[in-house]
Design brief:
The chain has 3 helices and 8 strands. Helix content is 26%, strand content 23%. It is α+β, with helices and mostly antiparallel strands and 178 residues long. It has an 8-stranded mixed β-sheet with strand order 3-2-1-8-4-5-6-7, with helices on one face. It has helices spanning 2-28, 111-120, 158-167, and strands spanning 42-46, 51-56, 59-65, 87-95, 103-106, 129-131, 154-155, 173-177.
Length: 178
């Protein structure tokens, strides 16, 4: 019985070491970003449904289940609240070396949101993205949507962010609804 326990412990340690090693490799290696072949002219995120839709001239061409900010369903109001903002923004950039596979930057905060935050004496925050799963954890796939886990971003699977990266050009409007 003692020998069996030792083998189980050794086997568990080997599996854990392999998972950590593989995760480390994926965290360090840059992702080869897919080419951009734009065909999307509008994005809609409905937070209460945990859904994101890509539209082309009013026609929904893709729908994704998303994970959102762990700060709750309310609109983002300040840095560190871990909430997803609400309103209409634009995709203002992209990061092929993201810690979350690939990411598209959302142009939050607007000038009006900056003024409101300033009036309240708070930092409105920033760095709101549409992104994949943390590097090394892509194997989670769709399981990542079971819990809202981001710091105020919109998360999809790695294969989905690759598709979104390819379809969505910079400047695309994104409407985030409650």
């Amino acid at each position: 019985m003692f020998i069996l326990r030792q083998w189980i412990l050794v086997g568990s340690a080997v599996v854990l070491a392999a998972v950590v090693a593989v995760s480390g490799v994926y965290f360090v290696l840059p992702v080869q970003a897919p080419p951009i072949n734009p065909s999307v002219d509008y994005i809609v995120v409905e937070k209460h449904l945990h859904m994101m839709q890509l539209l082309d001239h009013g026609t929904v061409i893709r729908t994704y289940r998303v994970a959102l900010g762990r700060g709750g369903k309310e609109a983002k109001s300040m840095a560190g609240d871990d909430k997803v903002p609400e309103g209409t923004y634009h995709i203002v950039g992209r990061n092929p070396r993201s810690a979350f596979h690939l990411s598209l930057r959302i142009g939050y905060p607007t000038e009006q949101q900056k003024r409101i935050a300033q009036g309240l004496g708070v930092d409105p925050g920033g760095d709101v993205m549409i992104h994949g799963i943390r590097n090394g954890l892509g194997w989670l796939g769709g399981l990542h949507t079971k819990v809202d886990w981001t710091r105020g971003c919109i998360a999809v699977t790695d294969s989905e962010i690759e598709e979104i990266w390819e379809l969505v050009p910079d400047g695309t409007p994104i409407e985030i609804k409650a």
